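Q: I have six molecules that I believe assemble together. Could you output structure tokens for the complex as a whole instead of separate predictions?
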Amino acid sequence: MQRLPKVTALSVDDSGWGYFLCSYKELRAGRSGSEFLFLSLQDSSGQVVGKLMCDVERYKDEFDAGEFVRVEGRGSNYNGRVELVLSSIRRVNPDQDRREGFREEDAVLSAPRPITDMWAELQEHLQGVKNNHIRVLLNRIVADHEAQLRVWPAAQVIHHAYRGGFLEHITKMAEVGRHVSHAYGADWDLVLAGIILHDIGKLQELAYEGGAGSYTRDGNLIGHIALGIVMVREAINGISGFPDDLRAQIEHLIASHHGVREHGSPVEPKTVEAFILASVDELDAKLNQVRKAVAEDPGDDEFTAWNKRLGRVLFKGKA
Amino acid sequence: MQRLPKVTALSVDDSGWGYFLCSYKELRAGRSGSEFLFLSLQDSSGQVVGKLMCDVERYKDEFDAGEFVRVEGRGSNYNGRVELVLSSIRRVNPDQDRREGFREEDAVLSAPRPITDMWAELQEHLQGVKNNHIRVLLNRIVADHEAQLRVWPAAQVIHHAYRGGFLEHITKMAEVGRHVSHAYGADWDLVLAGIILHDIGKLQELAYEGGAGSYTRDGNLIGHIALGIVMVREAINGISGFPDDLRAQIEHLIASHHGVREHGSPVEPKTVEAFILASVDELDAKLNQVRKAVAEDPGDDEFTAWNKRLGRVLFKGKA
Amino acid sequence: MQRLPKVTALSVDDSGWGYFLCSYKELRAGRSGSEFLFLSLQDSSGQVVGKLMCDVERYKDEFDAGEFVRVEGRGSNYNGRVELVLSSIRRVNPDQDRREGFREEDAVLSAPRPITDMWAELQEHLQGVKNNHIRVLLNRIVADHEAQLRVWPAAQVIHHAYRGGFLEHITKMAEVGRHVSHAYGADWDLVLAGIILHDIGKLQELAYEGGAGSYTRDGNLIGHIALGIVMVREAINGISGFPDDLRAQIEHLIASHHGVREHGSPVEPKTVEAFILASVDELDAKLNQVRKAVAEDPGDDEFTAWNKRLGRVLFKGKA
Amino acid sequence: MQRLPKVTALSVDDSGWGYFLCSYKELRAGRSGSEFLFLSLQDSSGQVVGKLMCDVERYKDEFDAGEFVRVEGRGSNYNGRVELVLSSIRRVNPDQDRREGFREEDAVLSAPRPITDMWAELQEHLQGVKNNHIRVLLNRIVADHEAQLRVWPAAQVIHHAYRGGFLEHITKMAEVGRHVSHAYGADWDLVLAGIILHDIGKLQELAYEGGAGSYTRDGNLIGHIALGIVMVREAINGISGFPDDLRAQIEHLIASHHGVREHGSPVEPKTVEAFILASVDELDAKLNQVRKAVAEDPGDDEFTAWNKRLGRVLFKGKA
Amino acid sequence: MQRLPKVTALSVDDSGWGYFLCSYKELRAGRSGSEFLFLSLQDSSGQVVGKLMCDVERYKDEFDAGEFVRVEGRGSNYNGRVELVLSSIRRVNPDQDRREGFREEDAVLSAPRPITDMWAELQEHLQGVKNNHIRVLLNRIVADHEAQLRVWPAAQVIHHAYRGGFLEHITKMAEVGRHVSHAYGADWDLVLAGIILHDIGKLQELAYEGGAGSYTRDGNLIGHIALGIVMVREAINGISGFPDDLRAQIEHLIASHHGVREHGSPVEPKTVEAFILASVDELDAKLNQVRKAVAEDPGDDEFTAWNKRLGRVLFKGKA
Amino acid sequence: MQRLPKVTALSVDDSGWGYFLCSYKELRAGRSGSEFLFLSLQDSSGQVVGKLMCDVERYKDEFDAGEFVRVEGRGSNYNGRVELVLSSIRRVNPDQDRREGFREEDAVLSAPRPITDMWAELQEHLQGVKNNHIRVLLNRIVADHEAQLRVWPAAQVIHHAYRGGFLEHITKMAEVGRHVSHAYGADWDLVLAGIILHDIGKLQELAYEGGAGSYTRDGNLIGHIALGIVMVREAINGISGFPDDLRAQIEHLIASHHGVREHGSPVEPKTVEAFILASVDELDAKLNQVRKAVAEDPGDDEFTAWNKRLGRVLFKGKA
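A: Yes, here they are, computed for all six components at once.
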């Protein structure tokens, strides 16, 4: 038996074994008395539905949602999408399975770019900051949260909701934002600070574990905008001589980055840099959703099926 | 010449001298070449338009907006409202004028209740807090900002926009909120914390000077909700053993107190206490506007003129 | 076999017999040919799903939705919620079953407080009315509709949708509203009139039978606001000497109690009393939903699952 | 001196005397010390600004707003609009002035069609009603309010705000609505009832005196929709054997005629007839505003100036 | 075996054979292993669910969605609606089946009026146009698209979504619009042009095949409003001497016919004719939905079930 | 007497003569009988109020709004802004005044960058287009409208409302858009086509004369989105072999560039390129407003006065 290909390459002709993160598990009861396991399985490239129909009793306690699993199965077609029909499943035994090629990062839905590349790019941006105060601040915050910043998603569901998504989001925003700042004579140091810090509160808003994000108590009760401002204020308090108007402008970038109050920003952009940040953030989030909708659409038409969140179909172009 | 009555008692039959805060000053140029001074004068009871038509050159540099002034003049009717037509005006000379009865608090638009009464009531509420953590927190913040809390307004324009307005707003909310909390079995200590702290960020959002509030840099750029959360977080950081879930709930009260995102709350109420706080806050602000609109309406009809901010006329009842 | 506990106390360990109102009944066809009965059963404490899988043919015509039933069964777990799996079911035979302990009020979803207590409280409020006209009006309307007012729900679905819900809603509003009126120097008699009469049109808008509310023709076509105004106008027409401005103010309370036109109020609050009524009504309806969502949430987390109607999760606190 | 032409025919070349209703009067104080009277004068064809600059003292107490006046003056151009510059003004002395040709109906802004024509048309519609119950109801209500229905405006400001406007509104709606009802197989008797009764509450909502409408207490506090339903209910109560479902449908027409809740309808259309009524009502009100905006626009362009209420310019076509 | 009645006349007592368009086909997998075919079948009178439970393997490749089929089966009740339970199904063999009575137009959901009647009515309207330019334009466009205009639906889903729906929509609008235009002294030629042309872009926006409409590339990317303006501009470019202001007014009718920008009109009505067009269009679309909702509601109540698109229940009246 | 400095450099210490465009002229009547001319004067750098108080009769017919004028006068302070108080004014005599240094482009409010620079930049972009079809299309349209594209504003009022504003808007968008397209792997040729063509309909929507834009008949009735699509369609029709899907995507860019229907786009973005275009367009328009509001704010505070169109104050930073 051979190893299954990556999820995005999976076809009905494939069968074999593989490692996945099981991000969802439900025992569905058929009315005829039979039960089956309905699972969501992910690897770094994407997500696929898994179903185990036979020997349910034997396998159903062999793993839990949130755990890495080793499965055997074959591709199957359901309403035009490929699924995995499983013949066996069990939780990964790290010691043993690592020897057979299991790596955690391969089995978690991930950003398309390697994390090391993105991290290096972020470091370059940091080194290019001219304003001493801002550079110190950004380096300190990035260093303090390196472990999270490397692997966290940028959101629970809507956009960049996968391993490395946070880093992908801010490096792409930095790539775009630098040019936009230059074009409008904006203060690039400030815009970069906004890009790196605007979602920093998400590190407290979300918990990211087992390949899935969930809201924390502070996330539900306070939200990442206020949490981020508190984090930045505490960091700035620890830096002597940080100019107060600079602090206010940086906190403004965080406070206003959703652009309008209806989207949860308690204040709206009042500086050129804040307008740029909100625009670049929104475009990056939107395009990430567009790319995902286009990539995941199973049909052969020029357009995707109706995308509920975006409220429209999307043009895919000719096959 | 006798002293003028309080602004709310002023009639066209009055003439004399008085002390006021000049909160607005504009030199209006008439087309015939003549100029006159258009002023806004306030004492503790209310606000009145002042006009100086004669000897403008002589008086126009004798004072500035934001200063206390001594005027001589008489009541006059303009479109159904009483105005003061001035014959002289000069800035107050504190040493000299105090001897003649000038007191700053008499010449600034003020809450109807004496500040000492409201302050005592606030202290009683503080002493009644059962939760030690909350009591320590509230006492510390109230003590730290006593000077401001005693005299600040609750807003720049919309409601309670006068000396002592902040204190009037939170004591009235406490009076109401205690009963509401009891009725719904809510945690009164928490609701009281929300009442006292929900607008605490306004002490940094606004600058209050010369009887007029204006937005600070932090107010414009960050807003009182995030500023308040930062203030409370810093206070709580200084209190050892403060339970983290309690902190989160208190910060939630501040974050959600505008009730909906469209009104600037980054998160919406998710606890019984937060629903109560938002409701009591909104009602108190609305009724303060209603009372003001009814009190200031000059007409004799059963209804006020159209109130633009509230988007309606208001019922005054029979004369 | 013993009697089943109250619905809210039911666990998977319970089995036995009990009396319920069957508020919903559907024959669901399994694809394998088998059918089962899907039921909604309620007693005074809550609602539970009932399923009858065996002997469906024998039992399916033994009762109808809207009838009281006697069932035998046992608790069962389905997706984390307790259900009742039934082995038999039949409609109640009043004569016989009363002897075995059947009481209608025990088998209908009900307000948590006893109706007699709430009714006594309402009477006290009525006796406290100082304005003769208002007291006569309220007493007459309450007396005329006593049978309904004692047991009706306050709404078909959204809040207080159970036996005694109307009475629970107005007594709680009266408890809260009295303090609020006092705090703002409002006319308590008027506010009380608004509390008792604001939803009086629901007695014509809804039909309440068999533990379930439904919309009447007049409810769908005219709505409880206009219906209530007509009812009150007719009652006032029968009271000689009722002052016309008082009538207008009372009708205004009914007309404006939804607060804004988007929620169906043809006019918006224009009196202090109307602002208070709309605020107290909305808070009571919201908190009833919050309590229900928290009480019914089956999970162990600090927060409930997403509540669609409220558009948020709710904080439950530590277990 | 000759008599002035109708307002809509007035030019800068005209001078003479005339009778008008003075609907607005304000003493405006010039900064140079001089005062002048700023007036709004209307005759049946339109409205014009009047200004009296000289001998203000002599004339200013010779009349009040809301009175008929006799003026002498000449046309004058102000910012592209014709005004009347007056040399004298006094209130009408009915006995004397009637002999010189004064007629009240000539001096009040009026519908373009003669009232007698419109009234006859309404009577024809009434006679054509086939349903006995509806015919009795309509005849009774029309007869009871004939005096008002003949001369009232349809609104205070927005549309048909002139003598006979109510009658013009409902006869035009009847002309249109009959064809629409026929086209859709709707019940024309019901639609006609909706047309005649939908605004009947305005007879209590507004007070119409001296050529100007204003809101009554009931109008402000209850609104014409609920007032109209009360009026119709009381009329129906006085007609024996009126079918209850017919009553509900007629009240539904009144309740839903604004089409959506945001516009103040407590319920939205649920019958074919209610959809037709709301559509015909809205179109007639809109087109009346369009006609007025086009007619009153002073410019020579193909488009009117910006119309604030309609939020657009309007096409007038070639001159 | 006899021929099945029309869909709208189908009852549980019917069995036999018939011709239908299969507009939807799905193989639903039962959990017990069994599969069944879930179909949507239409004839000219309506739509019905079809289910084939037995011999699925044998029949499932005998036809596709979008094809005409010949079925055998019997009426069956499912949750109060009549369905067709099939014993056999195959695609129509035109040569053979025509001999047995198959006609395409009988097997496609169609407008209630015969197309030839509606077409004749449209021709009459065209002949009545007085303005030469408009008449030439309309005749040319109608002639160029006769094949489509005769049979297309007016929309994909929302209203008049059946064969001949486009023609039914514009002839009904013309019937109504002529009277409305007359009543308001509007230019009937222009209004008629608007009625015939307002949706002309739908001929490029939609593809209509096999009884079902779908969006084309141009429809998704450009929309019928801009497409229609392009079509009309090209037609006008081919007519010498077409007055430019007339062209602009006709294009305005197309551009503004959704009435407000939120509904996709890039400009809002600025002429009397455009206000009339938007009003008549909206009413016709709404009433078509109302009629459909009432006609298809299976219940016996006075009201339909909740209609999601219209956001309300609808009054059906007594049975 | 010396020549006055540029408007943006004008101070109260300046006096002399200069050339301006008079974009607004009003004879204001003072109540004391005296009149004065209120003017708006512009040169390439900005706009300033001009007032002529003396010898009004002599000068008032010496020029009209929309003409170039030669004035003599001095700077004056009015409410903190510099105005020009004129002692003489007359229309420019081109022959004579050119000899004294008059150049039209110096006397019209203009984009800050020289038009020749921006034009050269646009040409470079055009030369870089790789797709032949797009390059032909863009070159043709740009060549056909060169005269307008060089000097037109981008809007009548809101943003880039000055000579060369259209060109400034699209070159800045191209500068930004190129980087954004690259970052997201979008088709830069397509995005550039969208940038150059998205507002092309404004050349028909607006008339630009005498330094001021106004709406044309087609602009008011059809709007620049549909007009632009028609223009592009006609241009594409003249290019043989233009791929239809490319045409549809380009028209989509025009149709969707306002981003949402509420802003007048009949369809919303459905391609990556359309999302980018709408984002870049909105940001450029917003930042142009922000720059203008900051530049024109006369105060010394860190923030501008309230900006009504943007609905906020703006941060200017330290003086």
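A: One point stands out. DSSP finds twelve helices and seven strands in chain A.
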